[in-house]
Specification:
The chain is mainly α and about 130 residues long. Helix content is about 55%, strand content about 5%.
């Protein structure tokens, strides 16, 4: 199953981390809720990080091992200057099986690659 990451990526040349993610999972389909609402994309896209975090915290309780939830929540943490928390979630993603994700621009990426890029970026930010 391909999960959908609906984050804008910075230019490929800069290899920026992917932002918010969305997964198309059976639980979402059963709930008949728009996926972007479940995974906080609309809030993240609108820079409403507190609302996104609340939504993602609730979804994480339902899907604690869903890479899309972890990546989105880590993105929110990073955007709100909580790099240590973000890094911990990216490490959690690396501990899970690698999942194929579809980026918002339609291209594919692997959850481990996104987490590794983000960890590199968080490390660079911390060293400045």
């Amino acid at each position: 199953m391909i999960r959908i990451v609906t984050a804008a990526l910075a230019s490929a040349a800069t290899l920026a981390l992917a932002g918010p993610a969305m997964a198309t999972t059976e639980s979402v389909e059963r709930a008949l809720v728009p996926v972007d609402a479940v995974y906080g994309f609309s809030q993240i896209a609108a820079n409403r990080y507190a609302a996104a975090e609340a939504r993602l915290d609730a979804q994480r309780a339902a899907e604690p091992r869903e890479p899309s939830v972890l990546i989105n929540l880590a993105y929110v943490y990073a955007k709100t200057n909580r790099q240590a928390l973000a890094s911990a979630l990216y490490e959690d993603v690396l501990a899970l099986p690698n999942a194929e994700l579809e980026l918002g621009n339609g291209s594919a990426a692997w959850s481990h690659e996104l987490a590794k890029r983000a960890l590199g970026r968080n490390g660079a930010m911390a060293s400045r």
